[in-house]
Amino acid sequence: MKSFNDLFQQYQWDEIKTRLDNVTLSDVERSLQKKNKTIEDFLNFISPVAAQKLEVMAKMAQQLTQKRFGKTIQLYAPLYLSNECQNICTYCGFSLDNAIKRKTLTDTELMIEASVLKSMDVNHVLLVSGEANKKVGIEYFLNAIRLLKPHFAHISIEVQPLSEEEYRQLHEVGVNAVLVYQETYHQEVYREYHTKGKKSNFSFRLETPDRIGKAGIHKIGLGVLLGLEDWRVDSFFNAFHIDYLQKQYWKSRFSVSFPRLRPAEGIIEPNFIMEDRDLLQLICAYRIWNEDLEISISTRENEKFRNHIISLGATTMSAASKTNPGGYAVDKESLEQFETSDERSMDEIKSIIRKAGYDPVMKDWDAIYS
Question: What average pLDDT does the chain have?
Fold first, then answer.
């Protein structure tokens, strides 16, 4: 089978944009009626004209989500390990060129942060760090996971791209899921956003999910940073990537996240504005196209949007998030990666979920079922 990079090179950004603009309402209606959806149907669902069918799409997304996942919402919280970073990225508060205080959690600080999360009943934790291989590399991650594994049923990570062997090591010590975002699939302008550091290597990042899949990681999470480039074109390529990965690594589960550019120290303004209605269309498109895909919504989104998306396709949500290392207890004033929009407590989020008729679930899965 061809590599994803080979398949990716067969498409041109402008070609996809033109195709999206030329989708007709009849195209959308035909795609909605099909039993087995393809990536071409997904393209129709995210087209500008498909917005006219948003109410129909929302109802369909709700039905499909309940059929596959029931009326449950999995909850998790991020635990930021470090804001050290060797990259210069124009949209990130951790960027190397930001003259800010850097912080990396010690073992003791890590366990203090973990104890706060446990007091909130968190059982699924997402470990996040800047990309600094020397200070926060594989040995740091292995140590952190060994310390945390006895206390959490599910550990996900969102760190710098690693080698296949390093992902294997993480899998062996208990990592259940790895999240990696291409940020944008617009290859020509990718370098303009990533001007220095290992992250400036577009192809190395593009091939990261393959290394994760080959290492046998249980779940792989993808997404793009919404606001860098045209969200429709970027999302097409992201779905195309997921489609390839599901066929290649069929034993793994897959999730998609929807980070929209949020305020942070020294970042650029969004290049493309994505309204709430656009994001709803995108979420519904993913669900209708792929019933098995897990859909994750972070605290970047505002309270109103998060309240409504509970019943319209979401399966996973973060809550009570702190996006700075030590933010829960150790160092509340350290630099955050981005501002959160929904600052409600874990208990408040649980209550909102229950009022919507759904059950909040604090554990993603159990190793005995793997």
Answer: 92
